[in-house]
Amino acid sequence: MPLNSAPYTGWGRVLSANAGRARPEKVAALRRHLAETPGPALGALRSYGDAALSGRRAAVDMTRLDRMLAFDPQTGVLEAEAGVRLSDILAHMAPRGWMPAVLPGTGHVTLGGAIAADVHGKNHHQIGSFGQHVESLRLLGPDGTPREVSGDTEPELFRATLGGMGLTGVIESAAIRLAPCPSGTVEVSERRIAGLDAYLDAFAASTAPFQVGWIDATASGEALGRGVLEEAEFSPPGAPYVPARKHRAIPMDAPGFLLSGAVVRAFNTRYFRRIPAAGRSRRRPLAGFLFPLDSLSGWNRLYGKRGFHQFQCVLPTDTARDTLRAMLSEIAASGLAAPLAVLKRMGPGRAGPLSFPMQGYTLAVDFPARPAAAALIARLVERTADAGGRVYLAKDSLARPEHVARMYPELDSFRASVRAADPDGVFETDLARRLALRGNSA
């Protein structure tokens, strides 16, 4: 199969690979290609660092394998190929009263990518992670042979694949349990939160099924951790589903001065104050609420041609308050943070040994790719490990192997499952090599 030899990057545009990409259009072509030239799969390249990069072997671009194969309206189980985007599932199924139970902040993520990263959404505290709603998988091994994998047939391999970053094989298709979608709109309440303690207290008291907070990562002193909390629930039944609005494209890489400390502080202050002091409520289209940045095509270009890193951690409830305070103080003092910073409450749900979630709070902050930012993130990763938390592998570009060993206590069992499924390491990615996820690199 012909290969696209152009270099490609993750969404952060900092790291790249150039070993080539195959792009099969049919399942038979995919299986033949793997039998001849095995390599890891990639989807829409929405992971931020090197999770989908393969610098040693040609990768398999799954995005043309995007068919929805079967749906059972009695059980809500949808079977689809791995390259279908979650936004397409939502647009197709929401008018029929169904939706993926878990949706991340962008609908461009593919089904295979959502499983590989065990993604989470604004409803994690109630619904859990994506992998917990997967019924079964068709997984291709190093020779292209398919095997049906589920919690009943091969529980260890199945669990290692959920959140396993693609290292157990190529997901050809999957069956997932959808959730009811009673309305095409949601009722959103927005309110200012004065500081970190008030934020965590507000999350703990909220009963809303969807919760997410924007946080001003430049604020300090009494305003440390201030932000805007959004809580949402479905509108009364009957509102039609409206697809996300047409994308506006970022035409060029933004100049660096747009992310200077003074500009970001001014922007964040205005963004915080756009919400009335008394708060506000409004009805929003479901897709617009779930995927707020998807209306801005190529928004990663706002960070300039050097790209950006995202630091995302989750911290257990008992250490979150003190650790978040220390992190936010250091971030604010650095003057390096971009406007995009998010705080969410998480529940205990996770699907596999390398799944990110734990009960507590997750903080995500973007940083333009500068040497000082890399050094800051390294310190934040250390703080995360010391607090008993973990970093999100789908967003990471700077952690080290010793961090992962401290953060993911089931790493040894995961390595055993991966080596059994792929003894020669043909599905190893740049992320897996950097973090020694297989143990000794293949």
TrEMBL record:
UniProt cross-references to InterPro entries, sorted A to Z: FAD-bd_PCMH, FAD-bd_PCMH-like_sf, FAD-bd_PCMH_sub2, FAD_lactone_oxidase-like, Oxid_FAD_bind_N, Vanillyl_alc_oxidase_C-sub2
Keywords of the record: FAD, Flavoprotein
Keyword Glycoprotein attributed: no
Gene3D superfamilies named among the record's database cross-references: 3.30.465.10, Vanillyl-alcohol Oxidase, Chain A, domain 4 (1.10.45.10)
Keyword Hydrolase attached: no
One Pfam family matching this protein: FAD_binding_4
Residues of the FAD-binding PCMH-type domain: 14-181
Molecular functions (GO terms): FAD binding; oxidoreductase activity, acting on the CH-OH group of donors, oxygen as acceptor
Identification of the protein by name: FAD-binding protein
Species name: Halovulum marinum
Highest classification ranks of the organism: Bacteria, Pseudomonadati, Pseudomonadota, Alphaproteobacteria, Rhodobacterales
